[in-house]
Specification:
42% of the residues lie in helices and 6% in strands. The protein has four helices and two strands. It has helices at 19-24, 32-47, 64-74, 84-91; strands at residues 55-57, 80-82. The longest helix has 16 residues, at 32-47. The termini are far apart.
Length: 97
């Protein structure tokens, strides 16, 4: 090794996710969305958050119908279910600087 090169740093050893995370990485099944809707509602209840005032932000628009259907099946109020893009459209244009 000459003075112009730096030593190569070895890659870190991957750490597996906790076992709780492994359960959520499994493929989606018919109970996935109802289960997620129940968890969101439970979280809101514990925190005193009124669901109709909450926003559940999902990463992809393809997930919106399943999430909305799951909350519709639960009955009662549901949070606003959006993606970053759909939320931006709903909030309107940005103010001119």
């Amino acid at each position: 090794m000459n003075s112009d090169t730096k030593p190569v740093t070895p890659m870190p050893t991957p750490v597996p996710p906790p076992s709780d995370d492994l359960a959520r990485l499994r493929p989606l099944d018919p109970q996935t969305w109802p289960g997620l809707a129940a968890r969101v509602a439970e979280w809101a209840g514990r925190g005193g958050v009124v669901l109709r005032d909450a926003v559940w932000l999902l990463p992809f628009s393809a997930l919106l119908p399943q999430a909305r259907k799951a909350f519709a099946q639960r009955g009662g109020w549901s949070p606003r279910i959006e993606t970053p893009a759909t939320l931006a459209v709903q909030l309107g244009p940005r103010a001119v600087a």
